[in-house]
Amino acid sequence: MSDELTIIVPVFNEEESLPAFFLEMDTFIASSPVPSRVLFINDGSSDNSLKILTEKCQQTAYCTVLSLDKNYGLSVAIKAGFDHCTTTLVGYIDADLQTHPADFLSYFSYFPDYDMVNGIREKRQDRLIKRLSSKIANTYRRLMINDAIKDTCCPLKIIKLTYAREMPFFVGLHRFLPALVQLQGGKVKQLPITHSPRYAGTAKYHLLNRLVGPFFDTLAFRWMRSRYIRYKIADRNT
């Protein structure tokens, strides 16, 4: 079966960024080497995001929008996207234009040899406090779970749907998508990508939830990994 891609785009109050994001996504869809579509997950936006998304998807064949009944957070939005995806590959990108759909083009050559491609924001265009908090969180996570992933929260990923669907998911585990692929025995490729300052709007995370949340989520992941069931059949007599 040939590959097809669905890109999940969680959206929470991004009305200012969406028109420019649509332009970049239009360009990517036109140049993608595999048939691609976009699934916007409206995560309970209180601004005009849903109206803007609905109008776009009514006018554009490649996209649809799934609107949640309230704001659940990033983990739930991503899980909802996985649950409603039917293509062989599933991607993830934020709508804030700090990462760019065009960088997905460099990912495709690594399939099917790898089961996930994860971006690395090597030259981050964030404020100092955001860069420091992310560096601390990434260093702590690598020390605790030894997954060798440089930028686990980079919002530019493509995963084989078979691996995405099997992830044991709960709130906070969006921070561990590469490790969750590895947990299933999958291979993760890491690639440097372009990173830009936020185009518009405001960030949804601050120092407290960038450090406290990852601390407890890492402990939860370690607990789950120690009890995760994996096995192989050595022989079967019928």
Structure, explained:
This protein is of the alpha/beta class. It has one domain (5-227): Spore Coat Polysaccharide Biosynthesis Protein SpsA, Chain A (Alpha-Beta Complex), CATH 3.90.550. It is 36% helix and 16% strand. It has seven helices and seven strands, in the order E-H-E-H-E-H-E-E-H-E-H-H-E-H. A seven-stranded mixed sheet has the order 3-2-1-4-6-5-7, sandwiched between helices. Strand 1 (5-11), helix 1 (18-31) and strand 2 form a beta-alpha-beta unit. The radius of gyration is 18 Å and the shape is globular. It starts with a strand and ends in an 11-residue tail after the last helix. The model has no long low-confidence stretch (mean pLDDT 88).
Give a brief rundown of this model.
The chain has 238 residues and is of the alpha/beta class. It contains seven helices and seven strands; from the N terminus they run βαβαβαββαβααβα. Helix 2 links the parallel strand 2 (36-42) and strand 3.
Jot down its keywords.
238 residues, Spore Coat Polysaccharide Biosynthesis Protein SpsA, Chain A, 7 helices, 7 strands, 16% strand, globular
Order of strands in the sheet with most strands: 3-2-1-4-6-5-7
Helix content: 25-40%
Main sheet properties: 7 strands, mixed
Name the CATH class. Alpha Beta
Roughly what is the average pLDDT, rounded to an integer? 88
Order of helices and strands: EHEHEHEEHEHHEH
* Spatial extent as radius of gyration: 18 Å
CATH architecture: Alpha-Beta Complex
List the helices and strands and how they pair.
Layout: E1 5-11, H1 18-31, E2 36-42, H2 49-59, E3 63-67, H3 74-83, E4 89-93, E5 116-120, H4 128-145, E6 156-160, H5 161-165, H6 177-183, E7 188-192, H7 207-227
Parallel strand pairs: 1-2, 1-4, 2-3, 5-7
Antiparallel strand pairs: 4-6, 5-6
